[in-house]
Amino acid sequence: MTPPSLRKAASGPRLVAVSNRVVHPRSAARGGGLAVALLDALRQRGGLWFGWSGQISDHPDTRPSVAESGPIRLATMDLSQAEHDAYYNGFANRCLWPLFHLRLDLTAFDPQHYDGYMRVNRRLAGALWPLLDDNDQIWIHDYHLLPFAEALREQRAKQQIGFFLHIPFPVPEMLTALPHYRDLMRSLFSYDLLGFQTEDDVQRFRDCAVREFGAQLRGDTITAFGRRLTAKAFPIGIDAREFAEIATSPTAQQEFQRVRAHREDRTVIVGVDRLDYTKGIPERFRSVECLLDRYPDTHGQVELLQIAPTSRGEVPEYMAIRRELEQIAGNINGRYAQLDWEPIRYINRPLGRRQLAGIYRASRIGLVTPLRDGMNLVAKEYVAAQDPADPGVLVLSRFAGSAKQMQSALIVNPYDNTAVADALQTARYMPLEERRNRHAELMQGLLRNDASAWREAFLQELQRCSAQREDPASPTAQAA
Ligand code: ADQ
After folding, report:
1. What distance in Å separates the CA atoms of residue 279 and residue 370, rounded to the nearest whole number?
2. Can you give the residue ranges of every domain in the chain?
3. Among 140, 239, 272, which is best to mutate for testing ligand 1, by the most ligand atoms less than 8 A from CB?
4. Does 240-448 match 11-237+452-474 at the fold level?
5. What residues are in contact with ligand 1 under a 6 Å CB criterion?
6. 307-342 b/e with 16+ CB inside 10 Å = b?
7. Residue 109's CB: how many other CB atoms inside 10 A?
8. Tens of pLDDT, residues 22-73
9. Assigned CATH class of 11-237+452-474
10. CATH assignment of 240-448?
11. Per-residue pLDDT, 42
C-alpha cells in the first residue's frame, strides 16, 4: 500500500472537502448524490473531509473528532441544539432553501437564525483552520456554508478556496428580498472559484453582482468588493458506469422481480425524491389523475410508484407537504382504485441504492417533475439503470438543471397537468426503436459528463485561477 506522504505528493495538493454533513464511507449510499461524489474524489486523491457529524450535543467539543478511513481523514464537529435550530433548520432550510428555489411565500426571515448561521460558519471555520496545510486545495459545498471562506480568510487563510452551489442561484429580485443579501454576496467574493450547476445560474449570479454591486466582468472573472473571482458552470454528474452495474446486481434483480411480479402487463411509473416541496410531488399526483381522466385505457393498467422518504422532518413546511401528499393520494386512489389495483402507491421510506436501481430498471417510465432543482440526480440514475435493449422513458421537468443536458428525455412543464399526462401516454406507447435511440443519446451524455469529469473540471479550474491570482503579472491577479 502507498504510504500517505507519497500518495499526497503523487496527486498534487491535498484536497480538503467541507460540507454540512460528513457521511461515513460505510453509509455513503444513504448520503445521496453529494456524499457519493465527494467520497469518490477523496478515495482517488486522499484528503480531508470536514463538517457536521450529524450529532447534537449539550456541550459540543471545540475541536473536531478525527477518524481515518483508508486514504480519507474524516473530521467532524457536533452542534448544540440551539445551533442546529438556527443554522440548519432555521437560516439554511427555512430561508435560503425556499428563497433560492423561488418560494418567497415559504421563506422565513428571522435575524436570530441569521446570527446563528454566521456563528456556526465561524465556529466551524475556526475548528478547521488548525488542520490546514499551506498548499491545501479547499472545496466548500452548498448553501449551508456560503460565508465559510470569508470566515477562513478572517483567520488569514491564503489557500485556494472554491465553492460549489448544488441548488439554483435565484434571480436578483428574489435574492435582494433577503435582508442580509449584501453581506452574503460580499462573503462569496472570498472564494477564488464559484461553481454553479448551469449557465443560467452563473448568469443570474453575474446579473446580481453587476446590478447591485457594480461588478466588473471580464470573461469568466468578476470583480467586486475589491476582490476578483471566477464563476463558471460545472453540471454535476453521477458515476453512470457504476450505477449501470449496480442495476444488474443480485439485490437490484430481486427488486426488479418484485416490481414486475403481478404487474407484467402494467406500466409502472416511478418517482423517487426526498420529500420536499420543490420536487413537485403533489403536481405529479395531479398529473397522474389527469392521465386517468383523459385516457380510460390506463385504468387498471398504470401505477405510479412514488418513493419519498421524509427529509427535514422538524421543519413545519415539510410536515405540511407530507400531510398534503397523503391526502391527495388517498383521494385519487379512492376515486379510481379497483379490487386488485391502486393507481398510486406511495412509500415514505428511504431505500438502498441497489434496491432503487432495481426499481428504476423495472419501471417503464421515470417521472421527474421538480418545480425547481439545481440538477436532479434521480433523472440521471433512472437512465443509467435502464436495460439498453429495452429501456424505459424519462419524463423530465424543464425546471430541473439536468434538463439542459438531457434533451432526449420527454421534457415537460410540471405545472401543466394535461401536458404531463399527454407525455406519459406518449411514453407508454413509444416504439422500441425510439426508446433505444433516446436512451443511447442520454447514456452517452451521462458517461461523458460523469462524477469524475465534474470533479476534475472543478479542481483543475480552481488550481488555474489560484495560480493566476498568485502571479502578479497576470491580468486576473487579485485587485486587493
Ligand atoms: P437533492 O435535492 O437531494 O440534491 P437529487 O439530485 O435528486 O436531489 O439527489 C437525491 C439523491 O438522493 C439521489 O442520489 C437519490 O438516489 C437519493 N434518494 C432520493 N430518494 C431516495 C430514497 N427514497 N431512498 C434512497 N435514496 C434516495 C441536491 C440538489 C440537487 C442536486 C444535488 C447534487 O437539490 O438539485 O442535483 O444536490 O448536486
Report:
1. 4
2. 11-237+452-474, 240-448
3. 272
4. yes
5. 32-34, 166-167, 236, 272-274, 307, 309, 350-351, 356, 373-378, 381
6. bbeebbeebebbeebbeebeebbeebeeebeeeebe
7. 14
8. 988 777 655 566 787 788 778 888 899 999 999 999 999 999 999 999 999 9
9. alpha beta
10. 3.40.50.2000
11. 86
pLDDT number for residue 152: 98
Q: How far apart (Å, rounded) are the C-alpha atoms in residues 390 and 432?
A: 7
Give pLDDT, residue 43: 83
Distance CA 149, CA 224 (A): 16
- Residue 193: is its pLDDT beyond 60? yes
Task: From 55, 69, 63, 60, select the one nearest 27 (Cα to Cα).
Answer: 69
pLDDT in tens, 257-305: 999 887 778 999 999 999 999 999 999 999 999 999 999 999 999 999 9
Give the pLDDT band of residue 1 (cuts 50, 70, 90). Answer: very low
Active-site positions?
166, 373
Assess contact for 72 and 38: CB atoms under 8 A. Answer: no
Name the nearest CA neighbour of 191 among 160, 222, 165.
Answer: 160
Whole-number average pLDDT of the chain: 92
What distance in angstroms lies between residue 130's CA and the mean position of ligand 1's atoms?
Answer: 33
Residue 25 pLDDT: 78
Bridge partner residues of 303 (DSSP) = 268
Task: Select from 464, 12, 13, 456 the least CA-distant residue to 236.
Answer: 456
User: Going by CA atoms, what residue is nearest to atom 8 of ligand 1?
Assistant: 376
Short-list 344, 349, 270, 271, CA closest to 313: 349
If one counts every other C-beta atom within 10 angstroms of the C-beta of residue 91, the result is 29
